[in-house]
Fold these 4 entries.
Entry 1:
Amino acid sequence: MVDLTGFEDLIILALTALLPALGYLLWVRQSERLGHEPWSLLMRLFLFGALGATVIAAILEVVIVDLGTAVSQKYPGPEFGFLNGSSTLGAFFLVLVVAPFVEEALKAAGVVQYRSSMRRLADGPVFGAAVGLGFGFFETLLYGLGAFLAGGLAAGIALILVRSISSVLLHGSSTAMFGRGYASNVYEKKTGAAGAYYLLAVGMHASFNALASLGAIVVVLGLPSGIGTYADLIGLLAAIAFAFAAIEHVRTIIARSDFPGADAVHPRYRPPAARRLQPPVRR
């Protein structure tokens, strides 16, 4: 008989990574008040992030690290030490600078690629969230597969679950913010908004990575290793809180930009909760 255990484990890992990402996408989609984006479009955006941006980002980051290492070896001065991918400084440079700029640019390309499908301001952050969540799903699956190969199914599932409540949300919310800026550039004619919000997305990404790397940063600063252990936990909890706060902010932006000024235009355009809060009109 053919042993299907390994294949079944891969299916379990894939579903463990996929279902939270799709759940978040549904959550974001429901933030729109004037009609939801079709799932066919959202899944194309999701796949762009998963199979396009993730793979290209991985290739580019490897190339950049290899080039940086070559430069640092050719010019061994301390001013080029951060380019050495095998050094501690090189690892931080990759996590805090290279990855945020490269990955946010490639995810942003997915939003721009589907610009012809945008109908209103709120579509920008929804499109960005779909691309980012796709990216987060596939990246998380790859990390989970690595943990699976090293420590078995339980290790793979554990890593995927932790990343699903942190990194996946971060990727969705950071690219959603770029989408907000890009849509503002298109619909509100705010010149430079796309570039400004791209830098915001990069900043969010780098800040999240810094929180997630807090334990390693503490060790590099020369503090006792015992403090590093606590810093790992504190950094992880802070990163999770940051990711949830970011995605909730995105949902608020989507709801408010779906129909700007609607609450002041006519009561029937307001969401039900807002209508219930209005005092009765005296005649």
Entry 2:
Amino acid sequence: MKKISSVLMLLMLALVPVMAGDDKKETIVLPDVEMIDVPTAGILDYYGFMVKTRFYSEGGVLGSLNFGVLERLNMGASMTVDKLIGSASPIRMRRPEIKVKFRFFDGGYYMPATAVGYDSQGYYYNTVSKKYLEKGKGLYLVGSKELGVSNLVLHGGVNVPDFDNNYFFGFVGANYTVEDKLAFMLEYDNLFHSDDPSRLNAGTRIYITPYFHLDVGMREIGRNGNFPNGDRRKAERVVQLKYNTSF
């Protein structure tokens, strides 16, 4: 019963802003600040606010908050709760992680919009090592640019997830938006190092309103194997609820 109550509370918090409505007249969707796992150079406006809830494998829930604290600076935090949904136990709440993004170039005719950021949120927490088996982005540099086709945007960058090893990883993604109602996302993450395999992710974003989005995605498509500690590594389905507003 506690798990059911917690899930209902999360859904109510996500849906209240939608049911309440919005007095704003704009119908154009806001820029995407992230896709499934890959960040973009998009940022929230000054005084902007975004709440995201991701439902992932084995009943886990990831919640995050992001704020537009300055004109070009976003800051936020995220936290995962394993086994919150379903009958499995025990429920485990993991430590909060931080995220920061600063967009220092808005882009031009030839050059992409560019941002630098830090995101420590990983996936698949290991209780023995007290680290995520899939590391967060860490320090990253990302660029986003619309290609020759309208509403087709390419994102790409490099990141250093672990300062102990100082390995550079890469990521690339693209999204195509159809009439501000539907977007298709494809990303290839965690590139350059065979000992930490790459990930192919895909998903669909439904713009229920310009400020409320529903994402349905698949992570690690075609992946079948084990993590270094022996845990199973396989494809997983994720669902995300995202709401954007401003103070």
Entry 3:
Amino acid sequence: MYAAPRFTAVAVVAAVLSAATLPARGDEPKPATPKEARAEGAEAVPGKEKDPGAPSAASRVTVEIDGKKVACREQGPQAFLVRGSWFPKATDADAVKAGRKMLEDAIKYRTEKYGYFEGFGSPKGNPHPPKHYAKSTSFMGMSAQVHEKIVAPLKCVEAALKASGAGDEYKPRAMGGMRFHNTYKGVEVSNHVYGIAIDIEPDKNTCCGCVKPWNEHPLCKKKVKSVFERMAMPKSWVDTFERFGFYWLGHDVLADTMHFEFLGDPDKVVESP
């Protein structure tokens, strides 16, 4: 539903990478995230202090998966999957090379875990395209197609929203999920094509770093102290998504407040029996 291209080229990085035209909706993003990875073995995003300890039994979220009740594991995004890590502000050759290497690693990882998207990575990592794993699911009364591996983390987010009461703070009416063509240009591929990204109410949750018509939203012209003033979704929703491996592109300089992408480890979504 929301497959229209929203991206422009990033001039600085493109110049360094010669022929590469990188998609962006503003200046290059910071590789920052509000949560530290807490799952065992997950890579932490640099620049943040680690959250002390594991969640208490009282805050533990349980969901039903394949007829069995399981506990959700809290985790943060893996650093090398955060797009801000791929496009350093520095333009020296070593920084650009390191960023490009992380991008290549991210494409390889997503191919292996979620499927091969033509033109990115190698089918040797996974012979099936992401759409092979597409699954329709519901989330907070909405429905969308996503990769089957993020159905469980979405259930964890939904259960946590309902348990905390945050689910009553906001009642979105629509969301978008998997796409079958890339809305980026150049060397980057959207997480929507892997089925691991969702957009919640794009007409109410802005992306003010986007190209037209996205950056023409009335809230984008408003002077604000926080990006949260340019969206209908409350901060409690963002905080809840971040507990379970999702990264919010509202932290990116693109300020894509509608967009969440699962950058945790899909094999560590729930606690082992």
Entry 4:
Amino acid sequence: MFEIKLDNAKYWRDCISAIGSLVDEGLFNITKDGITLKAMDPSSISMVSFSMPSKSFSKFTIDKNSSIGVNLENLGKILSRTRDDEALVMKDSEGKLSLEFVGPSSRRRYKLQMIDVKKSVEKEPNVVFDANVEISGDPLKDILKDASLISSYIAFKASKDQFTTSAHGDSGELEELHNKDGAVMKKVDASKNAEAVYNLEFLENMVKSCPSGNSIQIAMKSNEPLKLSYSIGDSELVYYLAPYMED
């Protein structure tokens, strides 16, 4: 049994939106430390790891560790109806997840059927990265949009003090160079050059929920899965994306 409360329901809505951009179902683990989830997308190209500490909640009561499987699309639809000034109370209720939205003078309660999640992920990829990049989230979203005009894929290259993105398609080519200046590129640290090509649609889905003004961390190793992470409040989103390899 558990009962947890967030004073701002939109906080949970935003977190679920960030997870649901890649996966359609997931298993949330609830312990005294908070809530975690690890899940692969249906194509097994990408993975998301989510953690939200118990301190984020104004009430966090659990009798024992719990795991609940939910359809994230259905949960996202319910949370999209969040209104201003509403708190959110979640608890288990006879095999269902109860979501109660509490406003200044109203209450709404949904019950979402829990599901058996077929595929659970225990570990994150074990990669020793050669390069770490910290970039402002809003400019990175623009970089990906620029590349999407040319191709469905984007190449990242990190070297000492420079981060390069490029795209190649039937209609033309694009290359963008970004030096460490503290405005767009906050950090580029490479023990050796790292470069790989990634699917743009997956990257755009990963970054779209990053709050405006936040930074995004990218860790790379040539032709290995990319690690991309950012925070939503106290919560951390970590994504992994396999590189595109031409046949």
